[in-house]
Design brief:
- The protein is mainly β.
- It is built from two helices and 30 strands.
- The longest helix has 6 residues, at 13-18.
- The termini are close together.
Length: 343
C-alpha cells in the first residue's frame, strides 16, 4: 500500500514563471515500511521442524531479503509449516499449519503483533471479511472465526468435509472442499449467520479458487479432464468450460484480465472471458519432479515459480516475464509455496 502525500514543490522561481501548467501539486508515494511495494514468499520449512520463513522481493526485483520474521523479531520463532498468508489493512496473518497457530505481523515492517492458537486444528488458509478472520482447519473440518483486531476467538463453523482454500466475494465466503487431488465441491457460507448457504458441485480435483469482478473462478484438474467453473456470486449459479486433452491443471491465479494455470512443467494463460481452456503452454520450465511449481503466482505481469528443490535444501524462486523470459532467480527458504502482493 502506498500513502499519498501532497506537497507544494519548492523549485526555482524561473521554472515557476516559465511553466504554463497549474500543476503545482505533485503526488509522492511514501512506502509504509521496508516491506511495502513487493511480494512476500511463504516458505513451509521442513515438517516437524520450526524453520518456516517468509522472504520478500521488491516489485522492481532489486531488493531481496530472506527470513523476515527472524530478522525483525530475533527473539521469536515463526513456526512449523508456513502454509499461507492473508492481509487486512496493515496486518498480515501467517497460517502455520503444524504449529496450529496464526502469527500476526505488521505487513510493512514485519514486527510481531501477536498470535492466535485457540481452536486451531491443522489450519490451512485464511481470509478477512468485515473485520473477522476466517481460518480453515483440516482436522476439525471447521472454519474458525476470530476478531481481526483483538484476535479473540468468536465462533466455529462446522462444514463436515475437507475445508481448504477460502476467499470472499459479494459478502460471502467460498471454500474449496478438496485437497491433494480429491474433492469436488465448493461450500458457500453466509457470514451473517455462520451457516452454510449452498454447496456447489464442481469437478473432482478441485484445487484453486479466485474472485474477480463479482465472479468466483474454480479450477479442477484430474487424470480425466481439467475444468474451469465461473460462479456468479450474486446467484451462486455456475458455468463451466473443460478440456479432456488438457488434464490435471493446477495453480490457477488471476492477474488483470488473464487467467494463468499450470500443468506439469508448463505455464498456460487465457483471457478472463475465454470460452475454451488453453491447451498449449505459454512456456515450460525445467522438470524438478514433484517439487516443480510447488509455489505459483502471477502479480503485476510477472510470473513467480517456487521450486521446493526436493525439500533437501533452500528452495528456488524464479521470476518470469508474462512471455516467459527469466527476470530473476533467488534462493529462498525451504519449500516456497505461495506468493502474496504487498502493494
Amino acid at each position: 500500500m502506498k500513502l499519498k502525500n501532497l506537497y507544494l514543490g519548492i523549485i526555482a522561481s524561473t521554472f515557476l514563471f516559465a511553466s504554463c501548467s497549474n500543476d503545482d501539486n505533485t503526488e509522492i508515494d511514501t512506502p509504509l515500511g521496508a516491506y511495502d511495494n513487493g511480494v512476500f514468499i511463504t516458505n513451509e520449512g521442513n515438517f516437524g521442524t520450526p524453520n518456516a520463513s517468509v522472504s520478500f522481493i521488491s516489485n522492481d526485483l532489486l531488493t531481496f531479503q530472506n527470513d523476515l520474521f527472524a530478522l525483525v523479531n530475533p527473539s521469536k520463532v515463526l513456526g512449523d509449516v508456513a502454509q499461507s498468508m492473508s492481509f487486512a489493512d496493515e496486518k498480515a496473518f501467517i497460517v502455520l499449519n503444524n504449529s496450529n497457530e496464526v502469527k500476526i505481523v505488521n505487513r510493512y515492517t514485519f514486527e510481531s503483533l501477536g498470535s492466535i492458537t485457540e481452536k486451531l486444528k491443522n489450519p490451512r488458509y485464511s481470509t478477512v471479511l468485515n473485520g473477522k478472520l476466517y481460518v480453515t482447519n483440516s482436522i476439525s473440518k471447521e472454519v474458525t472465526v476470530y476478531d481481526a483486531k483483538t484476535y479473540a476467538y468468536l465462533a466455529s463453523i462446522p462444514v463436515g468435509k475437507t475445508v481448504e482454500k477460502i476467499i470472499s466475494a459479494n459478502g460471502k465466503l467460498y471454500i474449496t472442499n478438496g485437497a491433494f487431488g480429491s474433492g469436488s465441491n465448493v461450500t458457500v457460507i453466509d457470514p451473517a449467520t455462520n451457516l452454510i448457504a449452498k454447496t456447489i458441485v464442481v469437478e473432482k480435483g478441485v484445487n484453486s479458487i479466485e474472485a474477480k469482478d463479482g465472479n468466483v473462478y474454480v479450477l479442477c484438474g484430474s487424470s480425466e479432464k481439467s475444468a474451469l467453473f465461473t460462479i456468479d456470486s450474486k446467484s451462486d449459479t455456475s458455468t463451466v468450460i473443460e478440456s479432456t486433452k488438457l488434464t490435471g491443471a493446477l495453480n490457477m491465479d488471476i492477474d488483470g484480465n488473464k487467467i494463468y494455470y499450470t500443468k506439469g512443467t508448463g505455464v498456460y494463460v487465457m483471457d478472463l472471458k475465454a470460452t475454451t481452456l488453453t491447451e498449449t503452454p505459454l512456456f515450460s520450465v525445467t522438470d524438478s519432479s514433484w517439487s516443480t511449481f510447488y509455489g505459483f503466482g502471477v502479480i503485476d505481469d510477472k510470473i513467480y515459480s517456487g521450486d521446493a528443490n526436493g525439500f533437501t535444501s533452500s528452495g528456488i524462486v524464479t521470476v518470469y516475464s508474462n512471455i516467459g523470459a527469466v527476470l530473476k532467480t533467488v534462493d529462498v527458504g525451504v519449500g516456497p509455496n505461495g506468493f502474496y502482493s504487498s502493494n
